[in-house]
Every structure is written in structure tokens, then in C-alpha cells.
Amino acid sequence: RHPEGKEGAQRHRIERQGRRDAAEIAGAEIGTEHAHRNIRQTIPRQKSEGAADEPQHCAFEHDEPDQLTAGGIAAFGPPVSGLPLFGYASIALLLIGTLMLLPRLAGFAWGRWPTPRSPAPRLALAQLRGAPGQATVSLASIVASVSLMVSMGIMVTSFRGSLETWLEQVLPADLYVRAATSGDSAYLPLGVQDRIRALPGVRRADFMREQQLLLDPDRPRVVLIARDIDPANPGRTLPLVSPSVIVAADAPPPVWINEPAAALYGQTVGQRIELPLGGRAVAFTVAGIWRDYARAQGAFVIARDRYIAVTDDDAATTAALWLAPGADPAAMRDILKRDIPGGERLEVAAPGEIRAISLRAFDRTFAVTYALELAAVLIGLVGLSSAFGALVLARRREFGMLRHLGMTRGQIGAMLASEGFLVSGIGMATGLGLGWLMSLVLIHVINRQSFHWGMEVAIPWWPLSGAVALALGLAMATAVWSGRVAMGVDAVRAVRDDW
Fold first, then answer.
1. What percent of the chain has pLDDT over 70?
2. How many other CB atoms are there within 10 angstroms of residue 414's CB atom?
3. By C-alpha distance, which of 326, 330, 357, 301 is closest to 175?
4. Which residue has the higher pLDDT, 294 or 185?
5. Phi/psi zone of residue 83: left (φ > 0), alpha (ψ -120 to 50 degrees), beta?
6. CA-to-CA distance for 61 and 172, rounded, in angstroms?
7. Cα–Cα distances in Å, from 246 out to 134, 151, 252?
8. What is the Cα–Cα distance from 432 to 73, expressed in whole angstroms?
9. pLDDT of residue 476
10. In which order are the strands placed within the sheet that holds 175-178?
11. Distance CA 66, CA 439 (A)
């Protein structure tokens, strides 16, 4: 029993625990400083002995700006035989140049990273500062996988967001009626159009006529769309990508072309173009360019009254219906099927149904892209694990020395986790920046030269943040796991190899 009673015994235990903690901290601090000096002394010896710690890439250390500059210049190259070869070359050069620049980026970042006070993170930072080349392989795998994931994620998100916006713009009505499920061989005669307009509950009905035209024997047929449109304000009807022009009274009537038609046939606003209508070539003036994700072969929009005047064809293929307030779209669908001649062959759909079908088809198409993004991250983690595992196994003697100096397995694990965090953090940041640049090339060069349509850039902040946080945590866990595997061998005995 303690002579001062329970309070004295408790105070004695606290003081004893404090002295033991202080001794452990002091021992760890001394071990950290000693290991740091040992690393600084060992690195020159390893370099003089031709050690393989530093990758043999220093001979190219001045070529990175040339690679990056060439990648930027290649992004402005034209398509070759319809293929965006310069775009592919741009992405490859940007990736190669960034990977070659990694040792400089890592050395710059770690040199300016504030030195931690805790022994394990401080020793980890000292290790990376003293031998930055050791982490080059890990950095390269992380940067390559993250940049691929980010670039594809931004491109797919931008495409999907632009598609949703486009569907909202081109489907403003309450119901859409088509005379045939595909093609333009079935029509809505003028009498049927009048009956649809007269149906109770129909507030407004716009009719369109679609027809395929052959402009170039070496290219697929384009689509001509004749619809009601206000030449003074075509943006109410079409999703224009640039301001439309008012065609002069003495000029040919206006035509609005989609982005693929402008790219495939080299047309710009203000130019004159001839379309085969009514058995003859009819001149039009390009008044604007509009976005269209449905007709990659090209599409031309003209006023329906002009089309009827030239061809004497007043039939329609599609109707857009705006319903009166309180009208039920489902009930109107039944009325069209029942009361309109040939109604059983009509295809009637609400805009929400069309959007849902389109987006489901998009998601199915790009499902393989999501799988590729996941594979890229897994490949990066495998590369990180392999690189860290090799480095950790090569550093068993260092771990044994640290154990001799008083560091625990937990502290060594914390040191490796810190190294994983620092290496992965630099790799993630570099991969995010490179991925953003690669996505711009994908969107504005490769996609436009391949499909001839544009899209608005949209960055999926939350999915990317979650993916990066998950990858960072897995990278740290991988580093710790590799350390535990190496420490499974008697690391203390490995020190004898140096004695």
C-alpha cells in the first residue's frame, strides 16, 4: 500500500506513465534524427555504387517541356482521313511529358511541404526528399490511371449533361405523334392533320415533314426537316450554337444546318447551298447552325411553307401536340389511337418517355467506359502496391535499424502510411490536372473530329472527389500492407547484413 494513500498512488502512476511516455517520445525523436542522418549519408554512397534507387530517366530531364509543347500543338491538328490522329497524339504526348516531369514535380512539392512534428511523418518526408526517384514508378502508375479516369469521367459527364439539355430543348411539347416508327415512308395527310388539330384537349399542333436527300454520292443521305419556324427568332425552335442571321430579302431563303452538316460539307453561316427539292436544285442561305445528337449524317431545317411551295407536298411525318390545361396525356393517347384514321399504327410518346429511352441507351453505350475507369484505378493501385512492395522489401535493413533505435511496428506503419499519402497526394493532384487537360482534348478535338458535334464541359465534382478520396485511402492502406509483409520477415536480423 502506498504511504500517501490512494491519491498518492494515483499521482505516482500518472507521473510514472508521463516519464515513460516522455522517454518513448525522446527515443523516437533520437531515432528519427539518426535515421535521417543515415539516409543522407547512405544516398551518396548508393549513387556512387550505382544503386538502382533512382530511375535512369535523368538524361531526359530537359525534354518534358518539348513533349508538353508538342502535345499542345498537336491538339490543333486537322483530322487525317476522317480520324482524329493528331488528337490521339496530343493525349499521348501530354501523358508522356507529364510522366517525365514527375521527378521535378515531386521534388518541388516535397521540398516545400511543411515538416511535420511527429516522428513517423517527418521521417517519411525526409525519405522522400532524400530519394525522390524511389517513388517515380508509384507516381507514374497513379498519374496514368487517375488521368484516364478523370478525362473519361469528365467527357462522359459532359456528353450526358449536354444530351439532357438538348433533349429538354428539342422536346418542348406535351405529346409527340409519328406516322411510322422509322423512316419517312408513312405520312400524316392534310386531312388527318386537321382532325388532330380539332381534337378536344389539343391547344396547339405543329407538324413536321422529314425527307432524306442525297447531296454527295460518297456520303450517307442527309435529313431535310420542314417545320414551322420563325426566321426572326429561330432559337425558340432550334438549339442554336451561335447567333442566327437575318437573311436579306433578295437572298435565297434561310436554312439552318446542324453541326455535323456544317463540318461534313464545309458550310458556315452566310454561305449559299443548293438542296435537291421537287426534282430540281433549290438555293438556300445558311442562316444558323444548331446542335443535334440524333442525325450524325447531317440535317437541314427549312420553313414548312417554303417546302410546300417548292414541292407541293403538304403531308407530315411527325406532330408535336400542346395540350389544354387539365388534359390527360394518357387519355389523349387513347383518343389518337381510336379516333384518327390509321391510329393503331401511330407511335405516340410523351417527352419524358423519349428522354428516358435516350438516356438509357446512352448509359448502356457508355457502360464499358465506366468499367474502363474502374479498371484504370485498379491498375494504378496494383502498380502502386507492386512499387511500394519492392521498395519496402529493399528497405528491410532500414526498418531493422529503426527498430533497434526504438521505433515500434506501429510507428513504422505510420511512416509508410505517410509516405503513401504524400506519394499518392502528388500523384492524385497531378492526375487530376492532366486528366482535365486530356478531357478538353477528348471533348473539343477527338469528339468533334469523330462525330462533328460539340458539348459543354461539365465536371463531376462529387464523383471525382469520392473516387480520389477512396483511391487515396486505398493507396495508404496498400503502403501499410506492404510494410507489414516486409516486417513479417525479421527486419531486425536484416541489419546484420550491413555489419
1. 79
2. 20
3. 330
4. 294
5. beta
6. 57
7. 64, 39, 11
8. 21
9. 75
10. 272-277, 280-290, 254-258, 299-303, 222-227, 202-213, 318-323, 175-178, 347-349
11. 21
- pTM value is 0.78
Q: Half-sphere exposure of residue 324, counting CA atoms within 13 Å on the CB side?
A: 10
Q: Tell me what pLDDT residue 368 has.
A: 80
Angle (nearest 5°) at CA 353 between 292 and 450? 25
Which of 101-110, 287-296, 388-397 shows the lowest per-residue confidence on average (mean pLDDT)? 388-397
Q: Is the pLDDT of residue 444 over 80?
A: yes
Distance CA 454, CA 445 (A): 9
C-alpha torsion angle, residues 344, 345, 351, 357 (rounded to 10): 110
Q: Grid coordinates representing 107?
A: 521534388
Report residue 324 CA to chain centroid gap: 42
Closest CA to 285 of 300, 273, 276, 277: 273
What residues have CB less than 8 Å from 99, skipping those under 6 apart?
140, 143, 144
Scanning the structure block, which residue is given the C-alpha cell 434561310?
254
Query: Coil, helix or strand for 256?
Result: strand
168: phi then psi, degrees, rounded to nearest 5:
-65, -35
Q: 351-384, pLDDT tens digit by residue?
A: 999 999 999 999 988 888 778 777 777 777 777 6
Torsion of CA 169, 170, 174, 177, to 10 degrees: -170
